[in-house]
Amino acid sequence: MLGSLLTELETLDALDRCAETRAVVLRMARLASHGRLGAFVDAVGADPELDEQTRRWVLSLARHKPFLLATAEYASLQSALAGD
């Protein structure tokens, strides 16, 4: 249990260091929290400009709504701690 929690915290911290990835994940989290993630997933699946690795990553991430919401919460807490 503790190992899993530490892995998740490390993942959240890594997202905090990569602005582009964080932006995508937070956008997906906002869409998920408003029940609109399906339309985003459809658009990603149909986008001919995305490479297959990126498409698989986004679609895999979309299946983990609790992670998306936890990421949004983490980002909010980090922002509050930083005084943003």
Describe the structure.
With about 80 residues, the protein is mainly alpha-helical. It has one domain. It has 5 helices and no strands. The chain has helices at about 1-15, 20-35, 35-45, 50-60, 65-80. Helix 2 (about 20-35) packs across helix 5 and helix 3 (about 35-45) runs antiparallel to helix 4 (about 50-60). The longest helix is centred in the C-terminal third of the chain and has 18 residues, at about 65-80. The chain is globular and about 40 Å long.
Instruction: Please give the radius of gyration in angstroms.
Output: 14 Å
Q: Give the ordered list of helices and strands.
A: HHHHH
Report the average pLDDT across residues.
Answer: 83
Helix proportion range: over 70%
Low-confidence stretches: none
| Distance from first to last alpha carbon | 32 Å
Overall spatial form: globular
> Biggest sheet: strands, sense, closure?
none
**Overall tally of structural domains:** 1
Provide a count of the helices. Answer: 5
Q: What is the count of β-strands?
A: 0
Alpha-beta classification: mainly alpha
Strand content: under 5%
Query: Which quaternary structure do these chains form?
Result: single chain
Keywords:
mainly alpha; globular
What's the short version?
The chain is mainly alpha-helical. The protein has helices at 2-17, 19-33, 37-46, 52-62, 65-82. 83% of the residues lie in helices and 0% in strands.
What topology does this entry show?
Layout: H1 2-17, H2 19-33, H3 37-46, H4 52-62, H5 65-82
Helix pairs in contact: 2-5, 3-4
